[in-house]
Write a structure and sequence with these properties.
Blueprint: E1 19-29, E2 36-42, E3 46-51, E4 65-71, E5 74-80, H1 81-85, E6 95-101, E7 104-110, E8 112-120, H2 129-134, E9 139-145, E10 149-154, H3 156-164, E11 185-189, H4 193-206, E12 209-213, H5 216-233, E13 243-246, H6 255-264, E14 273-277, H7 282-290, E15 295-298, H8 302-319
Parallel strand pairs: 2-10, 5-7, 11-12, 11-13, 13-14, 14-15
Antiparallel strand pairs: 1-2, 1-8, 3-6, 4-5, 6-7, 9-10
Helix pairs in contact: 4-8, 5-6
Amino acid sequence: MSDLLKNIDARTRLAGTNKLEILLFTLGTDQRTGRRETFGINVFKVREVMRTPQITAAPEMPSSVEGMVSLRGVLVPVVDLAKYVGIGADTPRDIMIVTEYNGHTQGFLVEAVDTILRLDWSQMRVPPEMLTANMGGLVTAVTELQGNKLVMMLDVEKVLSETTRYDDAFLFKDIEAIEDGSQHTVFFADDSSVARKQITQTLDILGVRHVGSVNGRAAWEELKKVAAHADATGRKVKDMVSLVLTDVEMPEMDGYILTKHIKSDPRFEGVPVIMHSSLSGMSNQQLGKSVGVDEYVPKFEPQRLSQTLRRLLKRDLAGNE
């Protein structure tokens, strides 16, 4: 299984081309439907794939958290994804996918891993409302392979949030409203419902108006409408869009391509772009800068996000005086 990910470093070159590679895996046959569904996770978030090691039970953990394992001296929580998703599969989860994102390492138990699939983000679609409802918002994107095989991308950020409880209200307790915050409008794009909720909460506390989108394509469509309105009324876009906050991984159009569109369009001159991602590696930050990103803020750090927003929005207001 180590061969499956041996070229992981080379894959960082895919970023910025609107392409991604996903590791396909199964969780077992769902006893409710009789089907074995295929799921996917971005390879960027996968550190290794291994046989499930001995798991030590831990008290007061969510039901889907099987316990902890020691990986090279570090204790890592282990989540049984079948239990979390609600698949009543009776097959053993002999494989563990070790993921690392947003500064956290965790293991996901799965039935089996299949292959690594290279796709264009434009092939990933926003999931239908029925699927979103049935999966509790756990699926962020879907794509169809040959033979009508559906692959569902799991919102691993939601899994992390709900199994570690790191998005509690105390994370927001020291954030204060920005003076004249209502004069600002922030556009943001993120395919994770958990991330959108946290961004919205941060902006609401700051007292800043905001417009949210579920992916880069939807955000770009909204931004183009603003630019057209600015042209028609003789105004500057930067007077209507104070800042753009974008995730990296999104179906249909990722954050790198969204940033390229914004930075290559002279109408958006002076509009800063913050990349807000759980892909916290230096390579991703450098790629963000290469397409014109002004700042990089890791996800699920409301205090840090609010500080960055406060600084850039204050600068924006001073520049418009």
